[in-house]
TrEMBL record:
Region span, Disordered: 1-47, 54-73
Membrane topology: Multi-pass membrane protein
Gene3D superfamilies in the cross-refs: Calcium-transporting ATPase, cytoplasmic domain N, Calcium-transporting ATPase, cytoplasmic transduction domain A, Calcium-transporting ATPase, transmembrane domain, HAD superfamily/HAD-like
Domain of life: Eukaryota
Extent of Basic and acidic residues compositional bias: 30-46
Protein's recorded name: Cation-transporting P-type ATPase N-terminal domain-containing protein
Entry GO CC: plasma membrane
Organism: Coemansia spiralis
Locations listed in the record: Cell membrane
Length: 1146
């Protein structure tokens, strides 16, 4: 930390006086200043220098020498030369007028000139990078595990056909159908992926990038695609640089070049340059990089594909996307089902060979078993469900940049939200001023204290107005209209101060800065939390005056004197007591509080031509005069209180993470349902005990200062996350990142909302970063995975509900889909074990899986919630509890993270053969079984209840139903179950084919045709039996919290389209030749026998009802507890807050 100097004389205050024209001017009284502090040095990343091929680089090759050489060649070929030209030549080259002394007054380009250049050169956009072709994407879908096994089965059918054509004629159809089904399945998945990509691309166009450009001396916001070479841009903190630009004026501009050059630290940019390599030029900023602090004016020198980003190939490639929890669960389920299918196919192939010694027969049987297990349409169903949800969320003004975000939003357990612009309106209004020892009010209301501000000559008030006018970074779109009609570009807090000062000064406001120009500036940043400027503001001891504003506690530390009772006096403990009392009063009303100070610089040490330098810090850093405090009100947004209440009722922990004062943050938190209980300090005050004696169970809320975060122990972090009401105040970007990391380490699925550049690290780290569209910076939008188009926090609640609905519907869809596996597998087992005639062929199984089943399963995408608020009364599906935290920590202890690459910092992945070997070995280890048997907290996509219903309960009832229908229809033709078994068991003769020998039973002779048509009619009955039972199951699976009766079962009209389409398909394959021949259907089938299945369907419905009633008693649904004190009904008092008055001097 730089040493602090001690002033020799007391500094004096700013005063107003009139000039010859009667216009107010500023003067100051002299003071002596401390000496400059020692400077700081900065270094460049040596790896970066090598990678760029700098002449100053170390010649020793790095481990990635080949890559470095490639980068060197690229940097040599970059077509940028303007960085070596003076401003005059750049302006001449692009026919633009730029004013380096007063850049805001630059003329820029004429509108007609810009229009001509745009038409000539085209829009400022990059040619989209080459993507995988549609054919490549299709083959990727085709190469999924299920499809490859279907294709292999089809090829095997044709091999069998080649071995024995006569006995395997049916393989002509079977092999073709298996292969075609794989292609159809891949086509459906490919189409849905393509559709979802197009949907997301269309949604992302809803938030076009904007840039601030000066044309004809007017600052305007235009689409970044309309920028042309020669445009003068105004760049500020949070902007994404839209083109390659030549910087001719700046104030502490720093850019993040990591996306372009790999530099990890922000680089300072400004006028002047000595570097030959354009990527190292200090006066150039490039397309795609981010302004992380400061501001600048720059001339566009390259646009679109002519930018460095457009010239260097491969730099826009993104990182691999991590799988969402939902995708991991689906992938695990698919692998398990595929493993079961392969294993059972192998087992029954061996059984078939042992029993019948017939290779083609055993192969066909194994293929039938495999096809019966595999839910072929599941990947397409999942993709379609998420795509439809993304569209619905966009209609609710929630834009997801990735389909994974749809489900993640519904699964979040903790939501860390910024305050300003997210929970509040980001519309600051000055309410009170405390200066000269007195309280003043700029508004009049029933709660306001202090005397009204009647003029600008009041001591203390005029100084605050002057500092607000001069020490600012706010820009205007135009200055030829009154203040209230101008568009302000800048921070909301500073904009509020500027509007207040402008309303008091009137037309004199615009004259003050030209009359007292700024010679030095340190913009506000999250580390200092103040803004400092030096102006040509003459006083008795010199020509320069230092002005500063910022966080009150930071400003007070820099001051040794105070303006009090119209005098400059030493700062005493009594002054600090009054300051604390006033600060507490302002902050307790939920207002943002800023402090103001000044210092007149001694002309002997700081003459008029003195050159200040931020790096060497040759400016005073202490000895300032404290001028006063100003409070600004930023009311909560409408609907925020109710939205936070709904989040908390849904079991989601909501935390406020803000840079404001703890009292301000707590006051806002109490207005918006975020804080209801007492803090430890409040309990101590109420009970009259020391804070240290208050037990952890005596308070519910915590307000933590950001300065304490670095010192917190693991036990203290555990305590913080056990509390339901937590606010982090005065936080830095590093603090926010630490909070998110700690939450994730405990198993929280963490969502983070924010709109500023300081929020971007936490947005990127979170499981789901949520940025604001209208008030958010380009940096925050870049880092986030979800954007609120209307900046309405309440939209998050709609998104959470939609995410939960998608998970619930997906689970219902899988529950329904896998139920048909048991009635498909059991006939295959009976066929070889009993044996019985084949009830289902592989072709019929595929007709079920990819016919009516996929039609019905997709209808769950439109399934509404069972009740209006039911989903939001359930806890998150992965709640964080003490048990889950202990489990996670034990799991992490058993599974240490893999080693990382020292160069890239990424985990080192095993080779494919090592990975396969570990996967084979894993089930034979104790660790694998320990992980497998450990019961996890919360709800998973495929759980024991789902598997029990699908495979054991509903599946068996359906299997019994089809077996009864099968034997009843055979009995109609005169074949009893016993005779059917004997005919199937007789391996010396092949029955139930057209060319089968005659069979005589009870004096009745059955020809081959009789046997064949009897079996096909029985098979048709089986097919319809499965369909009818699944129609009942389709409605049963809709009910999770309610009994499967009522109007809610029929609200989704697409359900009727789904099973109606399935019925049409079955009719086609049953009654329409030649389809009935291919699918073994019988046009003689009589619907009378389907009533048996209807009866079993009614039994299934009754069983499901009884089952649900029993589960309600044995395993009741765990609803969230009711939170007492939540205010859930909006009123005119939603944003008002009553506080008690304090004894202040007025």
């Amino acid at each position: 930390m730089a040493p602090e100097g001690v002033p020799g004389d007391l500094p004096r205050t700013i005063t107003f006086s009139g000039d010859n024209n009667g216009t107010p001017r500023l003067h100051t009284i002299p003071s002596r200043e401390p000496r400059a502090a020692a400077g700081r040095t900065s270094e460049k990343n040596p790896e970066f220098i090598v990678a760029l091929g700098s002449a100053n680089a170390d010649p020793v090759a790095s481990p990635a020498s080949t890559k470095v050489d490639t980068e060197n060649e690229k940097s040599k070929n970059i077509d940028v030369t303007e960085h070596m030209l003076p401003l005059k030549d750049v302006c001449s080259k692009f026919s633009v007028d730029a004013n380096p002394d007063r850049p805001q007054d630059s003329f820029g380009l004429a509108a007609s000139q810009a229009a001509t250049l745009l038409e000539t050169n085209g829009p400022n956009s990059l040619t989209p990078p080459k993507k995988k072709s549609s054919l490549q994407k299709f083959f990727i879908c085709l190469s999924s595990l299920f499809n490859l096994m279907l294709i292999a089965s089809g090829i095997l059918e044709y091999i069998l056909l080649g071995i024995d054509f006569k006995d395997n004629k049916a393989n002509i159809y079977m092999g073709a159908i298996l292969i075609v089904v794989a292609f159809i399945n891949a086509a459906v998945e490919w189409y849905q992926q393509r559709k979802s990509e197009n949907t997301l691309a269309a949604l992302l166009k809803m938030i076009p990038a904007k840039s601030h450009v000066i044309r004809e001396r007017k600052l305007d916001s235009i689409p970044a695609s309309d920028i042309v070479v020669g445009d003068v841009l105004f760049l500020r903190m949070g902007d994404k640089i839209p083109a390659d630009c030549y910087v001719f004026a700046s104030s502490d501009l720093k850019v993040d070049n990591s996306s372009l050059t790999g530099e990890s630290e922000p680089q300072e940019r400004g006028p002047g340059n000595t570097m030959k390599n354009p990527l190292e030029a200090t006066n150039m900023v490039f397309n795609g990089t981010l302004a992380v602090s400061g501001e600048a004016y720059a001339i566009v020198v390259r646009t679109g594909d002519n930018t460095v980003l457009g010239q260097i190939a491969g730099l826009t490639a993104g990182e691999e996307k991590a799988e969402s929890p939902l995708n991991r669960e689906i992938a695990t389920f698919v692998r398990i089902i595929a493993s079961i299918a392969i294993l059972t196919a192998i087992i029954f192939f061996i059984a078939g060979m042992c029993l019948y010694k017939d290779f083609p027969f055993a192969i066909n049987f194994a293929i039938g078993i495999f096809v019966a297990w595999v839910p072929e349409g599941l990947p397409a169903t999942v993709t379609m469900l998420l795509t439809i949800a993304a569209k619905r969320m966009a209609s609710e003004n929630v834009l997801v940049k990735d389909l994974q975000g749809v489900e993640t939003l519904g699964a979040i357990t903790l939501l860390a939200t910024d305050k300003t612009g997210t929970l509040t309106r980001n519309q600051m209004t000055v309410t009170n001023i405390w200066a000269n020892g007195r309280m003043y009010s700029s508004t009049r209301g029933h709660n306001d204290i202090g005397e009204p501000i009647v003029g600008i000559e009041v001591s203390g008030v005029r100084e605050i107005i002057a500092i607000s006018t001069l020490c600012r970074s706010v820009k205007f779109d135009r200055t030829d209209v009154p203040m209230d009609k101008r568009q302000l570009l800048g921070d909301a807090t500073e904009s509020g101060l500027v509007r207040f000062a402008g309303s008091r000064l009137g037309s004199d406001f615009d004259e003050m800065l030209p009359r007292h120009p700024k010679v030095f500036e340190i913009p506000f940043n999250s580390a200092n939390k103040w803004m400092l400027t030096v102006h040509k503001l003459e006083h008795q001891n010199g020509p320069l005056t230092l002005l500063i504003k910022g966080a009150p506690e930071r400003i007070l530390r820099l001051c040794t004197t105070i303006l009090f009772s119209n005098e400059i006096v030493p700062l005493t403990e009594e002054h600090k007591r009054q300051y604390d009392e006033t600060y507490e009063y302002m902050a307790s009303r939920g207002h943002r509080v800023l402090a103001f100070a000044q210092l007149q610089l001694d002309g002997g040490e700081f003459p008029e031509g003195y050159v200040f330098n931020k790096k060497t810090e040759n400016y005073p850093k202490s000895g300032y005069t404290f001028v006063g405090l100003s409070s600004l009100e930023d009311p909560p947004k409408h609907g925020v209180r109710e939205a936070i209440g709904r989040c908390r009722s849904a079991g989601i922990q909501v935390m406020m993470v803000t840079g404001d004062h703890p009292l301000t943050a707590e006051a806002i938190g109490r207005k918006i349902n975020l804080v209801l209980g007492e803090t430890r300090e409040a309990v101590a005050k109420r009970t009259g005990r020391p804070v240290e004696e208050i037990g952890e169970d005596e308070y519910d809320a915590m307000v933590i200062h950001g300065e304490k975060i670095a010192e917190m122990t693991d036990r203290e972090w555990d305590l913080v996350f056990r509390k339901n009401e937590v606010i982090f105040a005065r936080t830095s970007p590093k603090n926010k990142l630490e909070i998110v990391s700690r939450a994730q380490s405990m198993g929280h699925i963490c969502g983070v909302t924010g709109d500023g550049v300081n929020d971007s690290p936490a947005l990127k780290k979170a499981d789901l970063g949520i940025a604001m569209n209208e008030s958010g910076s380009d940096v925050s939008k870049e880092a986030a995975s979800m954007i609120l188009l209307d900046d309405n926090f309440a939209s998050i609640v709609k998104g959470i509900e939609e995410g939960r609905l998608i998970f619930a519907n997906l689970k219902k869809s899988i529950r329904y889909t896998v139920t048909h596996s048991t009635p498909e597998v059991i006939p295959q087992i009976l066929y070889i074990i009993v044996p019985l005639p084949p009830m289902l062929t592989s072709i019929m199984i595929l007709c079920i899986d990819l016919g009516f089943e996929i039609m019905a399963a997709l209808t769950y995408a439109w399934e509404p919630a069972e009740s209006g608020n039911g989903l939001m009364k359930l806890p998150p599906r992965k709640p964080v509890t003490m048990r889950s935290i202990a489990q996670l920590r034990a799991y992490n202890a058993r599974h240490p993270p893999p080693p990382t690459d020292p160069e890239t910092g990424k985990p080192i992945k095993d080779k494919w053969h090592v990975h396969i070997a570990k996967a084979i070995k894993a089930p034979f280890t104790k660790l694998w079984w320990q992980d497998w048997m450990e019961k996890s907290e919360g709800e998973v996509l495929v759980d024991g209840d789902l598997l029990s219903w699908a495979y054991l309960e509903a599946g068996l009832i359906s299997a019994i139903s089809l077996t009864v229908v099968f034997f009843v229809i055979l009995h109609k033709h005169g074949i009893s179950p016993r005779q059917a078994r004997l005919m199937a068991k007789d391996t010396s003769k092949s029955y139930f084919n057209k060319d089968s020998p005659e069979y005589t039973y009870n004096g009745r002779t059955f020809t081959g045709n009789d046997q064949f048509y009897a079996l096909n009619e029985a098979r048709t009955g089986v097919l319809f039996s499965i369909y009818i039972l699944q129609v009942f199951n389709l409605f049963i699976c809709k009910a999770r919290f309610r009994l499967p009766f009522g109007k809610f079962m029929f609200r989704n009209t697409r359900t009727f389209y789904g099973f109606g389409g399935g019925l049409v398909l079955l009719a086609l394959v049953t009654y329409i030749p030649p389809l009935n021949s291919v699918f073994n259907g019988s046009y003689k089938s009589i619907p009378l026998y389907w009533l048996i299945a209807v009866g079993f369907g009614c039994f299934l419905l009754a069983y499901a009802t009884a089952r649900m009633l029993i589960l309600r008693k044995s395993k009741p649904i765990k609803w969230n507890r009711t939170i007492e004190g939540l205010h859930m009904h909006p009123t005119i008092w939603s944003t008002r807050h009553t506080t008690k008055s304090i004894d202040l001097k007025v």
